[in-house]
């Protein structure tokens, strides 16, 4: 197999994962934790200020999707779809990103412990799902179609 460059499959997988990450992010932070954030509105930007910065959401999730795809492809290729491996990969990525990020934000911002724990738990689940999506997409595969 060898190492692939940034081929078509890399970009397609990266963008699909980015889109899924955006949807999960909106679900977790825009829906499930929305009431928590609204109750602590004074700690965050106003809705108007946040809306003015909203364009930054897209490059953030694009970075996440492309970087996860890039890292996943650095691992030795596995045969077929291995969802357990994808889940472990998602867990590992969460443990070096969202989990410490939420804990450190909690140190610097007067957030309730219960909110931080929910942020950690929900983003952990989201990242495990993204890892499983990557395993299902098989970004290592050469062609765009599965072999006959």
Mean pLDDT: 90
Low-confidence stretches: none
Gyration radius from CA atoms, angstroms: 17 Å
Residues in helix, %: over 70%
Termini, distance in Å? 18 Å
| Number of DSSP-assigned strands | 0
Q: How would you characterize this protein structure?
A:
This is DUF1761 domain-containing protein. Keywords: Membrane, Transmembrane, Transmembrane helix. The chain has 148 residues and is mainly α. It has one domain. Helix content is 71%, strand content 0%. It has 7 helices and no strands. Helix 1 packs antiparallel against helix 7 and helix 5 packs antiparallel against helix 7. It is elongated, with a radius of gyration of 17 Å. The relative contact order is 0.19.
Describe this structure in a few short sentences:
The protein is 71% helix and 0% strand.
